[in-house]
Amino acid sequence: MEALGHLLQGFAAALTPGYLLYAFVGCMLGTLIGVLPGLGPAAGTAILIPLTFSLDATGAIIMLCAIYYGAMYGGTITSVLINVPGEAASVVTCIDGHQMAKQGRAGSALGIAAIGSFVGGTLATVALVAVAMPLASLALKFGPAEFFALMVAGLCLVVGLAGNNMLAALLMTVIGLLFAMIGVDPVRGAPRFTFGVEELYDGIGFVPVVMGLFGVAELLLAAEKRQTHMVEAELKSWMPTGAECRQSVGAIGRGTVVGFVLGLIPGVGAIVPTFMAYVLEKRVSKTPERFGKGAIEGVASAETANNAYANASMVPLLALGIPSSPTIAVLMGAFIVNGITPGPFLFKEQPALVWTVIASFFVGNALLLILNLPLVGLWAKLLKIPFSYMCAGVLIFCVIGAYGLKQSLFDVWVMLGFGILGYLLRKLDFPIAPAILALILGPMMEKSLRTTLEISGGSFAIFLDRPVALALLAIPVIVIAFLLFKPRSLAPLRESDIE
Amino acid sequence: MRQGRLVATGAMLAFCLFALWQSLLLSLTDRLGPGPGFFPFWLALIGIVLSLALLVSIWREPRPATDSSTEEVRILPHGWGALRCFAIIGLLAAVTIAMELAGFRLAMLVFNAALVIALGERRWWLIALFAALGSFGVYYVFTTWLDVLLPTGQFGV
User: A393: closest CA among B145, B105, B134?
Assistant: First the structure.
């Protein structure tokens, strides 16, 4: 009941013209980013951070969250129309969505994707309202030992998803944590690894790093492969028929549940819920042979799960301060840039902000539905932008974003350096996500561990005296042991598995 | 790929060794408990163990049938792809240097035009329009509407 009262107040703020405009602009830009192949939600959210520099914290977060879920929907358009997923989560949508487009039903596919995204996103936000506050209240009882254990568990779940590449993922986590050590020691205030470089006293900036690792690296990878011009698909209508809607009801319901549950678990990438929802739908279908040949339930389940996952993944961030994916880590970085630390204290110390942001999720989902159904044709036209202009446009944003935060050209060099590093790491199949999460969690992990050890007089036995911390620390051990000794049939999901 | 992964892991091992050495120059513990070097020391140590384990794991992977020179070509960009990548990196480096001297608008004007030409655009009017909008237009929007400070350079432009 308390949550409902807060939510109503949040709605009152989120529906003011200013915040409504930020949500609208965020949805538009997010969809645009999602439409452009090669730029995923993480890169999109990172490169658009400079647009929020002058906004107040609530406005900035509303806009960036809208960019995130806008991008999650935007990827659908390219998946359906040209069989190119705008972002990884839309890979599954290609299977039936593009088949529908080939049959002249692109409008139905995009329409049901928009409806499914709206329903999935909205219901997941309702569940977020119910779950987030009790979870945050529980986390308020945590001490530094529990927080350290929670962060270790969160990082290890992300590492666990790297599958056979687990050793590389663990190493990338450590590298990310070491980069996070650069700057002034968070406990004693002593400079570390700064080598007399004044710009390093504040640490390596998160914004230039993510802009480099996502924005610049993505462009380098795209520039290497020659980009082709897009094809135009026929759009007869943008609404699914009544029969198609009835066919999709069950798929939307099941997709919401799958997306929400998996969104709560750190490390589950966006592709896993979409894939699982699709497989579930195929299993429960009386006519599974239609899947892969233009079954609308295939599109509805994957897209619903995708947006339910996107909204549910805000629960660990808002309630526990744990980013569950690279995009959420970028959002967490944006919170921190705006002077807000996500986590259980957020609900206590800044209830107005957090509930306005949550209310804006409902508003944003509704805006996406209103925007995307009639504007599908316009989004499809954006695919004709030549790569040269898209690349230059993105780089302008990257340069401004890296420079603008601290007015430092040093940060532009950092962005360029991490761009080249990100390009090489991606080519060499080193996972970047664990390093990003480690970079943002590093200072908090160190502070929690050192405070814990100060309390215990330097003894690690304190973790044995705290059952919650011990249980949380057991998670990484179980995950790693499971991955080392798992049966072959439980190998991690890959895009090729969808074939 | 295998050779590239070995080199990259070797570089990470070197990075961890360097971090270990640097953390040893800081105090690991002090009167109150763990010192500034404590966390990076243990991280670097874990990093060294993981790097060595990964090196061994990659070394033990079966060698691909192709010869190593062909393999390397796949990791590093080649042909036109390499030219495009180097154009992006080179021009980004150039604009970063130029911004301090010439300011955002002039540096970005040249950067935009040079980049779209390097990536294959040949319609001069479109190049000129894009370069102007992407430099002077963007500068106006960000400094006037969004209150973001951008470098003005030594000529005040």
Answer: B134
Distance CA A409, CA A402 (A): 8
- What's CA B9's distance to the chain center, in Å? 18
Residue A171 amino acid letter:
L
- Residue B29 has φ and ψ, to the nearest 5°, of -135, 155
The chain B residue lying nearest A405, using CA atoms, is: B148
B130 has pLDDT over 70? yes
Last residue of a domain, one of B24, B45, B75: B75
Q: Tell me, what's the ipTM?
A: 0.93
A–B CB contacts, 8 A cutoff, strictly below: 177
Domain interval for residue B130: 79-145
Residue B64 in domain: yes
Q: How many other CB atoms are there within 10 angstroms of residue B155's CB atom?
A: 9
Q: Which among B9, B40, B120 has the least Cβ separation from residue A192?
A: B40
Q: Which chain B residue has the Cα nearest residue A438? A: B43
Judgement on whether residues B71 and B83 belong to the same structural domain of the protein: no
User: What are the structure tokens assigned to B60, written together?
Assistant: 């033990």
**pTM: predicted TM-score of the whole model, two decimal places:** 0.83
Domain boundary among B75, B97, B116: B75
Q: In this complex, do B32 and A454 lie within 8 Å of one another by their Cβ atoms?
A: yes
Determine the Cα–Cα distance for residues A68 and A89; give it in Å rounded to an integer: 12
DSSP secondary structure string for all residues of A283-332: HH-S-GGGTTS--HHHHHHHHHHHHHHHHHTHHIIIII----SHHHHHHH
Domain count for chain B: 2
CB contacts, 8 Å: A454 with chain B: 32-34
Q: Is B12 an interface residue toward A (CB < 8 Å)?
A: yes
Sequence length of chain B is 157
Give burial (CB, 10 Å; 0-12/13-18/19+) of A397. Answer: buried
Q: At B30, is the secondary structure helix, strand, or coil?
A: strand
The answer to whether position B71 is within a domain reads yes
Residues A144 and A146: their CA atoms lie apart, in Å, by 5
Neighbours of A27 (CB within 10 A): 29
Q: Which residues of B touch A223 (CB under 8 A)?
A: 81, 84-85, 87-88, 119
Task: Give pLDDT tens digits for A161-186.
Answer: 665 688 899 999 999 999 999 999 88
Least confident of A105-114, A152-161, A165-174, B118-127: A152-161
Looking at the structure, tell me whether residues B87 and B40 fall in a common domain: no
Test mutation, B25, B29, B84, chain A, max A CBs within 10 A: B84
CA distance B28 to chain A (A): 11
